[in-house]
Write a structure and sequence with these properties.
By secondary structure, the protein is α+β, with helices and mostly antiparallel strands. The chain folds into two domains: about 250 residues, no CATH class; about 70 residues, no CATH class.
C-alpha cells in the first residue's frame, strides 16, 4: 500500500510538471512575432479583384493633312463627371482642412453672412483682397461670400492653380503590397520603380517624330461594366487660359487685336492718311477686278460654334490629352473601353461674314486665319489579356497599355 501511494504521488507530481512545461511552451509560441502574411489576414478582405494598369500615351509630331479631314471639326465632348481622378491630387494639394483649422484673421469683419453682404463696401472688399496673400497663411478669412465675388479670393488662393503643363510621369509612393490592397478603398498610383515602359518611353523620346505625353501606373479594383467607375487620364499642355472646352479662343488673337479698330466708329478727326491709303487700294482693286465682294449667303462659316445645349459634367480644364479609361470584367475576361480627345491648335481658312471683314482680309497678309483648338477623338473597345502589351493606334497619337495581375486578382 505504501509503495502504491508513493507511486501515485510521484505520478501526480510528474503530471503537474508536464502541464507546466506544456503551458510555458504554448505561451512562448503565442509570444513569438507573427509573420507578415498573418497581419494581412487580419484585414478584412472585401473580395475586390485588384489589377495594376500601366499607360503610356504619345503623339506623332508629323501628321498627314489628309488624315485631318477624316475627323469632324466640332469637338466631341467627353463627360468626366462621376469618373475617378487620381491625377489632379498629385498636381494641386487639397489643404482646405488646414485652412479651416487656422485662427481667423484679426482684420476680417466678422458679421453674420447676410449682414456682411449688406455692410461691406467695395473699398473694404478691395482692402481684404490686397491684404489676403499667401504670406499671411497664419490666419484665414471668413468663408462668407461678399457682394462681389471677384473681389474676394477666399481659400482659392491657397488651393493653387493647375500648371501650364502636366508632368510626364504620374506616380505615387505605394508599392502595391497585399496589405495596401486590402486597406485601400479607391485606386492609387504606384511607385515609378514598378513601371515597365521606361525603356519604351525613352525610345519614343529619342525619336524625332514622336513625343510622350503621359506615363502613369496605378492599381485599381475591377468590377463588372455597370459597377466599376471609369478612370480619367489627362496630360500634356493645359489650354484652359487660351481656349474654352469647345475650341473657341478665350482672349482675342493678335490678328483680332490688330484689326479691332476697324470695327470702331470712324470720325473725320481720326480718319488719317493710312485709312485713305487703304480706301484707295480697295477701290483700285475693285476697278481692276483683283478684288470682289462675295455675297454674304456664299460666305463660308467660321469655326464651329459652341453648342446651344452644353452637356453637364464636362471638365473645367482643357488638357492636350483628356479622356476616360474603363477597365471592367465580363465573366473572367478583361475589357478596355477608351474615350479620349487629343487637342491641337489649327489655323482655319474661314471666309469673312461681313463686307468690312472681306476688306480686312484683302488688305491683310494672313487672309483671315482663325485659331481653333480642334480635338481628335479616339474611341476603342477591346478585350485584353493580362500581362500582355496592347497598342491602340490613331493617326495622331498612340496608347500603350498593359494590365498586370496582383495577389488579389483571382476570384474570391
Amino acid at each position: 500500500m505504501r509503495s502504491l501511494a508513493f507511486l501515485l504521488n510521484k505520478r501526480g507530481l510528474f503530471n503537474v510538471q508536464l502541464w507546466l512545461f506544456l503551458t510555458l511552451v504554448s505561451v512562448a509560441v503565442i509570444m513569438q512575432p507573427a509573420p507578415a502574411h498573418a497581419a494581412d489576414e487580419d484585414i478584412r478582405d472585401r473580395g475586390y479583384r485588384w489589377f495594376e494598369v500601366e499607360v503610356l500615351v504619345f503623339k506623332y509630331l508629323t501628321a498627314d493633312d489628309e488624315q485631318q479631314e477624316q475627323f469632324p471639326l466640332p469637338v466631341q465632348p467627353i463627360v468626366t463627371e462621376g469618373s475617378r481622378d487620381i491625377f489632379t491630387p498629385r498636381l494641386v494639394a487639397d489643404i482646405r482642412g488646414f485652412i479651416n483649422a487656422l485662427p481667423r484673421c484679426s482684420d476680417t469683419l466678422g458679421y453674420v453672412p447676410w449682414l456682411r453682404q449688406r455692410l461691406l463696401t467695395p473699398a473694404s472688399l478691395r482692402a481684404e483682397m490686397q491684404n489676403y496673400s499667401a504670406e499671411r497663411i497664419s490666419c484665414r478669412r471668413l468663408p462668407h461670400l461678399p457682394l462681389v465675388e471677384n473681389w474676394y479670393l477666399g481659400q482659392a488662393e491657397f488651393s493653387g492653380q493647375l500648371p501650364q503643363r502636366a508632368p510626364l510621369l504620374f506616380s505615387g509612393f505605394s508599392e502595391g503590397s497585399r496589405a495596401e490592397l486590402l486597406r485601400a478603398d479607391i485606386p492609387f498610383l504606384v511607385n515609378q520603380e514598378q513601371f515597365e515602359f521606361h525603356a519604351l518611353r525613352r525610345q519614343l523620346e529619342r525619336r524625332g517624330d514622336t513625343q510622350p505625353i503621359v506615363h502613369a501606373s496605378w492599381r485599381q479594383p475591377v468590377f463588372t461594366r455597370n459597377v466599376g467607375r471609369k478612370m480619367r487620364v489627362f496630360g500634356g499642355r493645359n489650354f484652359s487660359a487660351e481656349f474654352d472646352y469647345f475650341g473657341q479662343p478665350i482672349s482675342p488673337t493678335p490678328r483680332q487685336q490688330a484689326l479691332s479698330f476697324m470695327y470702331e466708329p470712324v470720325t473725320l478727326d481720326r480718319f488719317d492718311e493710312d485709312q485713305f491709303s487703304r480706301l484707295n487700294r480697295t477701290l483700285a482693286a475693285l476697278d481692276q477686278g483683283s478684288f470682289r465682294f462675295k455675297p454674304l449667303s456664299a460666305a463660308e462659316t467660321l469655326p464651329p460654334l459652341v453648342p446651344t445645349r452644353i452637356p453637364s459634367g464636362l471638365p473645367d480644364e482643357v488638357w492636350e490629352l483628356d479622356g476616360l479609361l474603363h477597365l471592367y470584367l465580363v465573366g473572367n475576361f478583361l475589357h478596355v473601353d477608351l474615350d479620349f480627345n487629343l487637342r491641337d491648335i489649327v489655323q482655319l481658312e474661314a471666309e469673312a461674314r461681313h463686307y468690312d471683314e472681306q476688306v480686312n482680309d484683302f488688305l491683310s497678309d494672313d487672309q483671315h486665319q482663325l485659331e481653333f483648338l480642334r480635338a481628335y477623338p479616339l474611341k476603342q473597345l477591346r478585350r485584353v489579356i493580362s500581362h500582355q502589351t496592347h497598342y491602340f493606334d490613331h493617326p495622331h497619337y498612340g496608347m500603350v497599355i498593359t494590365i498586370r495581375r496582383t495577389d488579389l486578382s483571382a476570384r474570391r
